[in-house]
UniProtKB/TrEMBL annotation:
GO terms for molecular function: glycosyltransferase activity. Pfam families: Caps_synth. Signal peptide: none annotated. It comes from Cudoniella acicularis. This is Capsule polysaccharide biosynthesis protein. SUPFAM superfamilies: Nucleotide-diphospho-sugar transferases. InterPro entries: AfumC-like_glycosyl_Trfase, Nucleotide-diphossugar_trans.
Amino acid sequence: MDPQNYPLPSGVHAIPADFLDLRPDSEIDHDILHPKSISSSEKNIWFFWHAGFTHMHPYTQRNIRAWHRRFSKQGWTIRVIDRVPSSPLNVANFLDISDPGTFPRAFVDGTIGGDYAPQHTSDLVRWPLLLKYGGVYADVGMIQIGDLDRLWNETVGNRSSRFEVLSYNAGGVEERSLTNYFLCSERDNPLFERCHRLLLELWAADGGKESTEGMHSSPLLKGVPLMGGSFTIQDGEKTIGPEECSRMLTDYIIQGQVMTMAMGLVDEEGDWDGPKYVAEHVYGIEYMIGSQLVNEITAWDGQKAFDLMSLSLPKESEVESAEQKQAREIVERCLRESFGFKLAHGLILRVFGVTLGSLWRKHQGSDDVPGTYAHWFRHGTMYWCQDGEPSTQDYKVIEPIKRGPLLRDN
């Protein structure tokens, strides 16, 4: 099937060609590796990959190229920050890596350890980048679907708007659980400034930590529920039960715990009312439909998602099979209803075994085969745009988790 003839789902329209950067990949890659100098504009889209863009997996390189093709002509600059010593995109060229108010000692010394050191290194760069420069921080596994530029211009980037933070929220309106894989704000955001200070304090505990192990038990996070209460992990012949798995997952996503505490904190000494701030200034997109719809439809069965997305669309004379129908519904619903799609990796693989992202990584090029549902989905995320935009959850002021100073154990 000619990619230009993929069916256009209802609720979606084609983006005018002059809004897109349709040059060859080699020219797009040159721009990504040589981005514009930092300016006063806050239209920055930040990514981090410790070894740099050229050493990323091909499917995540395609993610980054799609961000550039979609948004660079609307004034956005896409940067993949790294820790490669000679790279012009080394984080040290953007932030003071010797400043203890910016990074913990383990980051400065390069001694971050544990099974997920690269992920925790990336956790430590996202708030400093947003606080200093503003814009969007997204994981490299984040595929953008909705019109980021339009939503930015109506919310965070609009001086008359009440919204100062844009993200996904894991849960209902009574929950305060922003996802760290997509964060958006202007410079010096007061919520993210407090989040960053709290995260640094956790890393500074016990004379300075080299991993996030055990951070879930910090008294500074008392009252924040642990994550993933029903998960188990099979570790060889041993089954790790829900309680230990929950502690492991919470340590892994400790940045999420930090945000929950900052949003649930009333600190009169620090002139901060987190519940009030959320109700007035956070644009929170419900995360399951907003960024995890493939996983919801397939019940987090990564192999099933991969198999469905790898199918070819029926040819003109063929009758659509039941599997093709389900794959079509995935693509059409995602393109119409989701603002993005986060490919899952990391610790979650120990829970589910495989995910769509891990299988795209394993089977190089499987996400980019013309005529397949995966390719139709990728085509839609680059050439098409939703007619509408996601709404924010309707937050109200709720009871705080903690009353007292941010960095003091009451």
